[in-house]
Amino acid sequence: MKSFREELWFNVPSRRGYVNITPQVEDCLRKSGVREGLLLCNAMHITASVFVNDDEGGLHRDFETWLEKLAPHEPVSTYAHNLSGEDNGDAHLKRQVMGREVVVAVTAGRLDFGPWEQIFYGEFDGRRAKRVLVKIIGE
Amino acid sequence: MKSFREELWFNVPSRRGYVNITPQVEDCLRKSGVREGLLLCNAMHITASVFVNDDEGGLHRDFETWLEKLAPHEPVSTYAHNLSGEDNGDAHLKRQVMGREVVVAVTAGRLDFGPWEQIFYGEFDGRRAKRVLVKIIGE
Amino acid sequence: MKSFREELWFNVPSRRGYVNITPQVEDCLRKSGVREGLLLCNAMHITASVFVNDDEGGLHRDFETWLEKLAPHEPVSTYAHNLSGEDNGDAHLKRQVMGREVVVAVTAGRLDFGPWEQIFYGEFDGRRAKRVLVKIIGE
């Protein structure tokens, strides 16, 4: 069994944003040499997500509107978490909706994706460097 | 290490619906010959889900009501994604709540499930053929 | 390839609660002897979750408030699922928001976590013994 590990770093300049990280994940897969196996890609921070959806700007604006409706950033005093001096209570909740991780099949050395599947880093408390982990196991 | 891959096809006749796909996934596991390992089952489309919950019709009606409250289909003009001519903006959001994939333990050649766990395909933009991927690795 | 399986049991004395289960999962990993691989940790019941977030009491109170807003327990007659005599329709929905499972990378014999990542058991229909599965594969 082969295993491979790499960290990807992102510094989203705004509080929230969505970054298509599929090319970086594909690079990891190439470097790993794994042809058949499973690839895990997860946010290493608890106010960010990794998820699979569509690379379409309108949809990303819909994510923004929708997540702000489900778990608004303001007023920050809404959240007991923020009593500790934080202002990112909403980010911890948004991340639950969008998910921490994706597991992707590796087949014949490629991400085994449907036609529109792309991997995104979802940032909900940005303006600093944060990490995503890629772990691949297989043969 | 063994690996196995199969696509399952579904054509849900309505816009939304829930299909218990546990028997098909169990068939894949039997064919794979894997006794100990991990099984990934994911929607290959970004307006559908694979998830584990209860095979109970009332609950599935509750999913329908609840997801329509969280991310209503109408008015379709609510969603920036639909400016591209689509009408499935809501389906991309519903899929985030319900999830893309499940990873299931394989133990002694069986899905290692609790008493009520069943795998469902959740369709949010149906009336056409769509795919689910089953990937199994182990020994 | 090595594989390891263990069940963890929890009996949360209230209807809802959050338990940091990271130490028990780390014990499993030590016992498994796996140094490089993947660890799956999932609720075996469909009214409970396993998820990764912050070990901060204020945040857990925010989860409680937020999930009750998204899928309130009362009135229990809201949910078609409860027509069967159950009162846990809300718990099945809360579990979808919080997720069934986490997959964690195993690197050099440890959970490959970012600085604040901790694994929680989320109970939404407690006051009875329920199980979490830990399955580890690797070398």
Annotation, overall tally of beta strands of chain A = 8
* Low-pLDDT segments of chain A: none
Oligomer: homotrimer
Largest sheet of chain A: 5 strands, antiparallel
Class by SSE composition of chain A: alpha+beta
Strand order of the largest sheet of chain A: 1-8-3-5-6
Helix tally of chain A equals: 3
Basic shape of chain A:
elongated
CA radius of gyration of chain A = 16 Å
Cα separation of the termini of chain A: 5 Å
Q: Which pair of chains forms the biggest interface, and how many residues does each contribute?
A: A-B, 35 and 32 residues
Q: How large a portion of the residues of chain A is in β-strands, by DSSP E?
A: 35-45%
What is the helix fraction of residues of chain A, given as a range? Answer: 25-40%
Report mean pLDDT of chain A, rounded to a whole number: 98
The arrangement of helices and strands of chain A along the chain is EEHEEHHEEEE
